[in-house]
Task: inverse folding
């Protein structure tokens, strides 16, 4: 089951709601804002493909949402694994310092 809540709004209202959003899809007519919004909100910003927008291709838009969600989850998982790896290295270093061994 896929649980998606989508909401359209003027881009001026976006800043008020963007932090709570998992993904921000921009319509092609405001593509000039993509770089600015990515700088502020990171990788959660993505463009709706113009052909999907122009032809009301909801399956294409859903595909974009699913693809971006998968990419973001993979990136987040990699960040978490990297953080745990770092903490594991710190724990080994601390254990070696405690027992008087050098690495």
Result:
């Amino acid at each position: 089951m896929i649980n998606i809540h989508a909401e359209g709004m003027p881009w001026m209202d976006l800043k008020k709601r963007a932090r709570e959003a998992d993904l921000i899809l921009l319509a092609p007519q405001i593509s000039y804002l993509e770089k600015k919004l990515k700088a502020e909100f990171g990788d959660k910003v993505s463009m709706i493909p113009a052909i999907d927008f122009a032809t009301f291709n909801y399956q294409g838009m859903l595909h974009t949402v699913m693809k971006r969600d998968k990419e973001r989850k993979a990136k987040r998982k990699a960040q978490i694994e990297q953080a745990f790896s770092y903490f594991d290295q710190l724990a080994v270093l601390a254990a070696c310092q405690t027992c008087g061994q050098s690495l």
Observations:
- Residues 11-74 form one domain.
- The longest strand covers residues 24-26.
- The mean pLDDT is 85.
